[in-house]
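Annual report, structural modelling task.

Input specification for the magnesium ion complex:
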Amino acid sequence: MIWCTLLNPALDVICKVNELHGGKTYLDSECLQTPAGKGLNVARAIRALGEEVGVHGLLPEYDGRRITAVLDGSGIQHHFLSIPGGMRINTTILEESNGNSTHISAASTPFPSRMQYDYTAFAFQHMQQGDYWCFSGSLPKGFADDTYAALIERGADAGITTMLDSRGPAFKRGVRARPLMIKPNMSELEEFFGEPVQGVHHIALKGKRFLDMGVAYVFISLGADGMIALHKNDCLLCSAPGVPVRDTVGCGDAMVAGVLVAFRRRFSFSETCRMAVACGSAKAMQNGPGVIDGTTVWQLMEEISVTAV
Ligand SMILES: Nc1ncnc2c1ncn2[C@@H]1O[C@H](COP(=O)(O)OP(=O)(O)OP(=O)(O)O)[C@@H](O)[C@H]1O
Ligand SMILES: [Mg+2]
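The model returned the following structure:
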């Protein structure tokens, strides 16, 4: 079983208007509401590839049903710790006349530190030997930077396999806990090392530093340029296939899904890399996070070249 954590869920509200003018009232606007969070994106993509998957995290008691209804409808299991209040709301206003989009992200109130301990205890209860746990996305306000690190360390004792895809201090602390796999993109890599990183060999050298820190598999995503992946003495440069691009938000989450599914199916390292890149690129072809087409993934895998660096 694969579990994806969702610690900072939000509701994305996208409203369409012809043209936005301050102080005006817009009636009967077309508004779409979708639950958002990286853990949800990863879980959706894993489900699209036909694997059993669950989401594990925090659920606002007031309107959490918005998330559970979507998960139930997609056949995704869930274990949530209920938290007081409602969902964080991110609003986007799309102007049809000029293509402008305006984003308003609601401030979130910090959780009391007790909540972090309640959640980690709740997660430990569900960690079962042989399971895969994916820790992705930001931590909620009020949670300490070592939250993922604590989950990864305890997870290792429980016999689970861990993937970390985060940024900033949560990523830095999490890496020190030696997850089995990580998937930084270029900006996360540069942020981690605090310097610009350029060119294949420089990226590979930084990737090797993660191996030296005790991470077994390092997948560095390079957007349209594909990926550099490292494991033991292997360092592979994987091209991304040329695809008609519609929406690249969540491509990295789809890549993480591909890695987890390939692991679960015991693919070789190079086949895992092909699957990962194919999932990322299949996502780029579709609108909406977590949306990938399984058949497209298998076709794209044939088009990806893998070369040793
Ligand atoms: N324009 C593109 N064309 C083809 N494939 C792409 C494109 N952009 C992304 N991909 C695929 O998706 C993978 C992951 O992309 P990227 O490096 O942008 O992840 P990310 O920054 O972590 O994304 P996010 O955090 O939004 O999920 C790439 O390695 C590649 O395989
Ligand atoms: Mg990412």
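The mean pLDDT is 95.
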